[in-house]
Amino acid sequence: MSEHDHDHHDHHHHDHDHSDLSETELRVRALESILTEKGYIEPAALDAIVQAYETKIGPHNGAQVVARAWSDPAFKTALLEDATKAVGTLGHVSRVGDHLVAVENTPHRHNMVVCTLCSCYPWEMLGLPPVWYKASPYRSRAVKDPRGVLADFGVSVPKETEIRVWDSTAETRFLVLPMRPEGTEGWSEQQLAELVTRDSMIGTGFPRKPGARS
Amino acid sequence: MDTEAAGHAAKAVPGVPRDDEGPVFRAPWEAQAFAIALSLHERGLFTWSEWAAALAEQIKRAQAAGDPDTGETYYQHWLATLEHLVATKGVTTPETLHRYRDAWDHAADRTPHGKPIELTPADFE
User: Fold this and answer.
1) SS3 label, residue B18
2) How much is the average pLDDT of A149-155?
3) Residue A61: pLDDT band by 50, 70, 90 thresholds?
4) Is B25 helix (H, G, I), strand (E, B) or coil?
5) Where are the domains of chain A?
6) Does pLDDT of A94 surpass 80?
7) Which residue of B has its CA nearest to A135?
8) Cβ–Cβ of B36/A170 closer than 8 Å?
9) Are B116 and A136 an interchain contact pair (Cβ–Cβ within 8 Å)?
């Protein structure tokens, strides 16, 4: 695939202040509500099926992007400068949305992304959002008490590390660039990519440690 | 969740995009459309052979209209098949589908970004 700065797809009207569903998404939602009202399907059962395939949805390019940034300082610089453009240069990534911003975790700062909507969540890179990500309590609590939310996920960030919460907008989507785990010197990009979890790219988790099983 | 039923569907219906482990999806809505068909099948609304025939018919019609059918549009046909079958089985009508589609569009328009989009009676007015 060639390089695209802006890859226009099926979102027709991109206003800043309201939500947007594609024509196809509208039709799926219409079917789902009618069938639910008539008792043919149960939303919870549908969610369970979709969740069972969460690792099978979308190209999951995020892990490759992170692994490349860990291995190639020039790519990392480019990624932090303009993530949409940098990801486009990888060639195999087709639709990352127009305004992707990569934010880097350091010993001084931990980044975490919140939003309740799929439309601002870069599922092309990360796969499906987790269910809790869409729940409004997560969003509001994450803004007020990020450390508490992280603790709920079993993630403890050192006290001296600042936690920065990024709220996606309709225009901008975020990808957290986690810190490269220690003990991975000399690893190939492919090996590194296997350590990158979805949650580490949202900031609600860390990459796997070398030797840990998934 | 019963991935066995999903695996069965993927085998019974020709062309379902898959890897070694089972179905794969290009976007979340594709998985939702797949899940709807799976649920309706479990409810006994259609058999997989009936579904496969209806889907083949949709694909044939789309190809006649110029669809390149490279696999990228597979779930578009899947969705059209769902809409067609629920109407022919008398579950709903094309008009109702359209009305709900418009209502969802309205709901999305009035929902500020970042809030869950929910359908309310006012969206139908």
Assistant:
1) strand
2) 89
3) confident
4) strand
5) 23-52, 62-202
6) no
7) B116
8) no
9) yes
For residue B90, give the DSSP letter: T
Residue A63 pLDDT > 80, yes or no? yes
Q: Which tokens in the block code for residue B47?
A: 């058999």
* Type and span of the H or E element at B63: helix B48-64
pLDDT at A209 over 80: yes
Round the average pLDDT of chain B to a whole number and report it.
Answer: 90
> Which two three-digit tokens encode residue A158?
């050192």
Decide if B39 and A115 are in contact by the 8 Å CB cutoff. no
Residue numbers of A annotated as active site: 115, 118-120
Per-residue HEC secondary structure of chain A comes to CCCCCCCCCCCCCCCCCECCCCHHHHHHHHHHHHHHHCCCCCHHHHHHHHHHCHHHECCCCHHHHHHHHHHCHHHHHHHHHCHHHHHHCCCCCCCCCCCEEEEECCCCEEEEEECCCHHHCCHHHHCCCCHHHHCHHHHHHHHHCHHHHHHHCCCCCCCCCEEEEEECCCCCEEEEECCCCCCCCCCCHHHHHCCCCHHHHHCCCCCCCCCCCC
Taking the Cβ of residue A29 and every Cβ of chain B, the question of whether any pair is shorter than 8 Å is answered with: yes
Scan for tokens 């993530």, then name that residue.
A83
Give me the half-sphere count of Cα atoms (radius 13 Å) on the Cβ side of residue A204.
19
Cα distances from B24 to residues A30, A134, B2, B53, in angstroms, run 23, 22, 16, 21
Query: What dotted CATH number matches A62-202?
Result: 3.90.330.10
- The pLDDT, as a whole number, for residue B27 is 84
Closest CA to A176 of A194, A203, A196: A203
First to last CA, chain A: 31
Q: Which two tokens stand for residue B122?
A: 């006012």
Is residue A96 scored above 60 in pLDDT? no
Q: Which tokens go with A166?
A: 């990024």
Task: Name A174's bridge partners.
Answer: A101
ipTM confidence = 0.94
